[in-house]
Amino acid sequence: MVRRVTLLTALYHGLGIHRAAAAAGPSGALKMAYLPKQVNNPYHAMLGQGVMEAAREMGVQARMLGPTTAQALAQEPFIDQLIAERLNAVILAANEAVALLPKVRELIAVGTKIVAVDADLATDARDLFINQASQEGVGRAQMQLMAQLMDGQGEFAILSATVTASNQNAWIYWMLQELRRPAYKNMKMTKVLYGNDDPVKSREQCISLLQNPNLRGIICPTTVGILASAEYVASSPFKGKVHVTGLGTPNQMRPFVKNGTVRAFQLWNPVDLGYLAAYAAASLTKGHISGKKGDSFSAGRLGDYIVGSKGEVILGVPTTFDINNIDRFSF
What we know:
The protein is α/β, with parallel strands linked by helices. The protein folds into two domains: 31-133 and 269-328, Response regulator (Rossmann fold); 136-267, Response regulator (Rossmann fold, 3-Layer(aba) Sandwich). 34% of the residues lie in helices and 19% in strands. It has helices at residues 42-58, 76-85, 101-109, 135-150, 166-179, 199-209, 223-234, 250-258, 270-285; strands spanning 31-35, 61-64, 89-92, 113-117, 128-131, 154-160, 187-194, 215-220, 243-246, 264-267, 296-298, 304-306, 312-314, 319-322. The strands form four sheets. It has a six-stranded parallel sheet with strand order 2-1-3-4-5-13, with helices on both faces. Strands 7-6-8-9 form a four-stranded parallel sheet, sandwiched between helices. A hairpin with a 5-residue loop joins strand 11 (296-298) and strand 12. Helix 4 (135-150) packs across helix 5 and helix 6 crosses helix 7. The radius of gyration is 20 Å and the shape is elongated. Mean pLDDT is 91; it is low at 1-27.
């Protein structure tokens, strides 16, 4: 894999994507769609922006559509719509890896190429998985950062998205594998709670975790959860006492890094993730790649990528943001 991660300014615009399973647009343009977990989630809006950037470069007709809640079955009506439209490709960030499979397989049956992004599907229900970073890499990096912030001492908890979110669950698994190492013998994970990627619910769950008087840190592997937690802790007696970290965007976390609520957090560039997914989808549709290990394709400004085992393409490694570098990034 050739891995260049370029960080761009990401301002949310209205997005779109179509599709043409066996048919192209009137001018012969490919059609594809991006179906996110939740259209009003800033992270997925930026991912969609990357899809649209790549689509413009390639002359592909594209749009983004999806639910306003991060529930698995909320995506089903949109999949039905895409089945009827018979697009060339759909880029799908599935809310749940199992519940959507029957609908996704209907989409495949009409000739649509499926590119999973952000969270994987069963390998027979997609052609490629565009992974932001390896699941092990994200999970271990999150645990290492928490240990650094806590000086390897004390209790911490995890505030995740939904209980069925396959990517968060995989990251948490690798956090706990990392925690088993002798270097973490003086740290203890007390609880995992779920905020359903809803700001209000995430805030409530953060408050619940803070009832533990021995808590020294919260890992939030979700952009919604880390923002909700930082907002609450910033104006509470816990500021400076409980470390909030996880996965967030520089623009949303900047004020909390600068006021000392959050010392450090991590993420990849979601714009680049969507951009890579769109180029991969176009390469599949044009027959340049099939999704088998060793296939290679060009992804515009990101360079060349090679498909790994089980049809996985990895964008790169997470970046750690702190007071020393956060102003270099805007997305």
